[in-house]
Amino acid sequence: MGSNCKCKFWLPKKTRFCSNIPLPNSLFCGNHTARSDGQWITCPIDPSHSVLQENLESHCKRCPLLKQAQSLSLQPFYQKGINSGKEEDDIICKPTTPTGTHADADASIKDSFDNITSEMKRKAVYAMNVTDFSKLITKIQSIHASICNDICHSQKIPNACDIWINRQVDRKLPFQEKHVLQQASILGNLEEFGVLKSCGVDMMTMERKDCNGSSSTDHSVVPAVVEFGAGRGYLTQMLADCYGIKQVFLVERKSYKLKADRSLRQKDSLKLERLTIDIEDLNLNAVKSLQGIPYLAIGKHLCGPATDMTLRCCLTKQCNQDDVGQCGDRCHLRGLAIATYQRYMSYLGISKEDFNAMTWFTSWAVDADHGSDLSDVVDCSQHTQIMDSDDSWVVEEIVRKMSAVERAVLGFMCKDIIDVGRLMWMREEQHGLESQFVKYVPSSISPENHLLIARATNK
Question: How far is CA 292 from CA 161, 270, 284, in A?
C-alpha cells in the first residue's frame, strides 16, 4: 500500500504516520479526523461512548454491544433493576401516619434514593456556608467517636492458604503479594467466622483433600460460591485452590482478559459459571444451577452502591437455606438494604443532605499516602479551627486547602459510619443475620480494607 493511501496523522512515539486507511475525501482515518461540532449523544446501549445525534438511529442498529444486550435480556436470571430498590421505595417509604416524625423520616429516605451524581454532591457541599460545613465535620467526628471505636483489626492468614503465600501454585497464575495477602485474609476471616472449613492440602501432590467426609450438618462446608464483582476471578481462584468448593458463579458486568476462568475450568471437580450481568439486574433465584443449594456470597471489588445491590440480591426469598454465609431464608427483604441503614443514619442525626455529603467525602479516603495506617488518625480539627477564626473563607477554598491526610481521615470516618450502618441493618433481629465488621488488612496494604461478614443464625 503506498504512502498516499495512509492516514496523514503523525505518531511521534512511533516516529511514523498512522497506517490506517483515510476516510473518503479526508487526509485522516476515522480515529484521527477532527471531531465534528455537532451534538454528541451518549449511546443508550453502551454509555462508554457517544455518537453524533444525526447518526444515533443508525448506530443503535449496529452498536457492538447490541447483540450482547439482546442475548442478556433473554436470560431467565435477567430482570431489569430488580436490585435497585426503586420498585420497593413506594412500599418501604409509604407513611404509616398522616403526619409526624415517622412519615417525615420515611419521606426523607425516599428522596435520598434519587440518582444524585458525584458532581451534584460536590456542588451541594461547596454551596454550604462555612458554619454549616464546620458543624457537619464536627458531627461526623462525634458520631465516629461514639460508634466506630470498636472496629477490630483482623488480619488472618489461614494455613489453608500456605500454597499461595509460599508461591507453590501454578507459576502461570499472576502473583502480587499485596493482593494475595488481602485475599488470604478475607478467606481467613471467613474461616474463623465459621462459614468456611479448611480441608487441607496434600503437600506431595499439591491437591486439596476431599471434604465430602464431613457431616452433612456441617455449615462450614459450602457447596457453592457466588463472587460478586468478580473481575478476573482470582479471589475465587484462591478459594478453589485452598477450600472444598465444588461450584462457582462469577458475577461481573464487564469482560476481562487474563481471567482465572481457564485455570478454574481445568479443575475436574469444579463447575464454573460466569454471569456477565450488572448486579442491579441479577435475579439470583432464577439461576437454575443454583436453585435449591446453599451458597456463600463473596465480593472484594464492590463499590458502595454495588454492596447494597448485592445485599438485596442475596436477601430475596430463599429456599430454606438458613445455613448460608451471607444469605438467608428470610422473605421480602429485597430493597430494604439502603432504606434501613439510612433510617439508622437518620437515628444518628444524619440528614439526607449530610448523607450525600458523606458519600462524596468517602472518595477522599484514598487521597493520601497510605504508608501509615491513616484510618487510626481521628484528629481533623486543624481546618475547623481555621474556619472558626475567619468568616471570609468559602467552603470550596477550605476544601482545597485541606491537606491530603485531613481529607483521607475524614473520608475514612465517613466510610466507617456507613459500613457500621450496614452492620446494624444486618444485625436486626428480624433478619436473623449474625454479622461482623473488621479491617482485614492494614491501610498500608490497601486503604480499601473494610470487610463485612454475615451469616444466617440457626434457629
Answer: 29, 18, 12
Give the predicted TM-score (pTM) of the model: 0.74
Residue 2 has pLDDT above 60, yes or no: no
CA distance 292 to 313: 16
10 Å Cβ neighbour count for 62?
A: 8
For 382, counting Cβ atoms within 10 Å of its Cβ (0-12 exposed, 13-18 middle, 19+ buried), the class is: exposed
The residue to which cell 429485597 is assigned: 334
Which runs of E-coded beta strand occur in 31-114?
40-42, 50-52
Q: In whole angstroms, what is the distance from residue 251 CA to residue 236 CA?
A: 11
> What phi-psi label fits residue 257: left (phi over 0), alpha (psi between -120 and 50 degrees) or beta?
beta
Residue 16 pLDDT exceeds 50: yes
Distance CA 108, CA 121 (A): 17
Amino acid identity, position 367 = D
Percent of the chain having pLDDT more than 90? 10
Q: By the 8 A CB rule, do 163 and 130 touch? A: no
Tell which residue, 182, 139, 117, has the closest CA to residue 414.
139
Surface-to-core class of residue 442, CB atoms within 10 Å of its CB (0-12 exposed, 13-18 middle, 19+ buried): middle
Model confidence pLDDT, tens digit, residues 336-395: 334 556 677 788 888 888 988 998 998 888 766 655 555 445 455 555 555 555 566 788
Q: Is 202 helix (H, G, I), strand (E, B) or coil?
A: strand
